[in-house]
């Protein structure tokens, strides 16, 4: 190899698709082992193996695809390895018709970049331009995107740019990919220190590749609060510039969605007014308010939630903690949001997510603890609100399989540390160690695979989800702004109305009377809807057309 400007080295060896290669680096004293290319696009033998020159050819047939903007969409988050028995992209393709019939418009893939071993949530990825071979690799992902587009479904990828996984990360041998500091999962990615231009380009080029070469419609950016970037132009703002450029040159809209626990409206704020201009962000506060109210759990970060007043406040303001004191954090948290200028569709809401299930000690789902009526009540709240709704795989039929945390690191010491870390984390929350499944055992992964055989209760839940998502479209419940949403409540019930349609819900085990009546559109239980009032049974709800 020969040295070039900017610290880069180049080789004159001709690249041939299928060719294996790696790099041995000299540190002034010794040559290193052979390691993969930081920009590898294919790792057929895993994160420690040689890289391979990819064949970029693929016969796309999605020429009629015009893309999807976020407003009006219904997202479906899934983990490729546990969504189907096959645990592959091909397995997901087999379920596209099912998802479309359900009412989903966009599938959101948990991270698919390479990780150590053969089973992982994906947040331990280390090679950000490649695809995990066990799922089907680069070709398999393109097949899925192509098939989804031809079925009328968009594809969003979950990408992790805030840390590198703990095994198989050789990037630090090539340059300053990280800098001093730490995230909950590893070193800080170098976005602002010496040599950071190349690291930012590493991320930009990955995003461009997913959008342009793979035809992906959107990217969900993991835990953006851990992207340490104090520079004048934040990475997220630059990614918005990049997305806008790709939209302009391809004519197809793309979407950037952030996950953050900071309750910061700047993520989706207009760039002209100091925001980052992202298309959407996940909203945990609405999940927390709804979960605590139905389940009764109020530990840890649920401690400030649990009443109809809190749910009503959160619905109207999006963030419950908005420059208010958080008991869990022991400080003031969040920032107020002007809901008159930020469309409701920018906020992604849900009854649960991979985090809210998998970060419980046993990975138990809400459907494993709640009655069918309680499950459908939560879904009805989310789908009747004007935010952008998201489902987590299996919730639509009340899955009885857990979604636990699982890994398959090849380093025994790393497996031990992961296991002990999980046990210590849950011990502080009062869980018995015997209840926590071993994340390194294959049985933990296999138990987390969805069971696609439904009993009668699950069939009823699935049908309710289909009806609710259909009514969301037919009743035009995804109104643009929250300012027209009227919310009322008392200790046990809550109502919100969209001018001509009202949603009423009972968050208690006893019947309640709500002072609104009209024409019943849909319910899952057996309320009594009169002209001026409605009697809701336990955990019941009703969608009502107003006179």
From TrEMBL:
Entry keyword set: Carbohydrate metabolism, Cytoplasm, Glycosidase, Hydrolase
Pfam families per record: Alpha-amylase, DUF3459
Record-annotated site: Transition state stabilizer: 355
Catalyzed reactions: hydrolysis of (1->4)-alpha-D-glucosidic linkage in 4-alpha-D-[(1->4)-alpha-D-glucanosyl]n trehalose to yield trehalose and (1->4)-alpha-D-glucan
GO CC entries: cytoplasm
EC numbers, comma separated: 3.2.1.141
Highest taxon above the source species: Bacteria
Location of the protein in the cell: Cytoplasm
Gene3D superfamilies hit by this protein: E-set domains of sugar-utilizing enzymes, Glycosidases, Immunoglobulins
Location of the Glycosyl hydrolase family 13 catalytic domain: 73-427
GO molecular function (one): 4-alpha-D-(1->4)-alpha-D-glucanotrehalose trehalohydrolase activity
Pathway(s) the chain acts in: Glycan biosynthesis; trehalose biosynthesis
Enzyme class: hydrolase
InterPro entries tied to this protein: DUF3459 (IPR022567), GH (IPR017853), GH13_cat_dom (IPR006047), Ig-like_fold (IPR013783), Ig_E-set (IPR014756), Trehalose_TreZ (IPR012768), Trehalose_TreZ_E-set_sf (IPR044901)
SMART domains: Aamy
Location, primary (coarse class): cytoplasm
Biological process per Gene Ontology, one example term: trehalose biosynthetic process
Keyword Cytoplasm: yes
Active-site feature positions: 222, 259
Family: Belongs to the glycosyl hydrolase 13 family.
Name of this protein: Malto-oligosyltrehalose trehalohydrolase
